[in-house]
């Protein structure tokens, strides 16, 4: 692992690591996941997802678990594109992120 440059994105905090560990679980019921977020993190689901989004953008998260982070990034990008399609009334094909 490369030496730390002092950049906070170079390392995962304990909370960031806990968030990634939490996301490894398969949640079939969103209500149960929301309850677990409140009990394990003491956060609202909306705030938790804000933090998750920030964690997914950290290079250290990608180094920690590339498959999980890429999958979550892809899902996030698909949801963002779907939201944009609804707002701007585009077809789903037009709303796909360009890579």
Descriptive keywords:
68% helix; 99 residues; single chain
Description:
The protein is mainly alpha-helical. It has helices at 14-23, 30-41, 45-56, 59-64, 66-88, 92-95. It has one domain (10-93). The chain is 68% helix and 0% strand. The longest helix has 23 residues, at 66-88.
Measured on Cα atoms, how large is the radius of gyration? 15 Å
Taking all residues together, what is the mean pLDDT?
87
Class by helix and strand content? mainly alpha
Work out the helix count: 6
Strand residues, percent: under 5%
**Segments where pLDDT lies below 50 for 5+ residues?**
none
Helix content: 55-70%
- Gross morphology is globular
Report the sheet with the most strands, covering strand number, pairing sense and barrel closure: none
- N→C terminal distance: 28 Å
Q: What string gives the helices and strands in order? A: HHHHHH
Total individual domains: 1
- How many DSSP-defined strands? 0
Please write out the topology.
Blueprint: H1 14-23, H2 30-41, H3 45-56, H4 59-64, H5 66-88, H6 92-95
Provide a compact summary of the structure:
This protein is mostly helical and 99 residues long. 68% of the residues lie in helices and 0% in strands. It contains six helices and no strands.
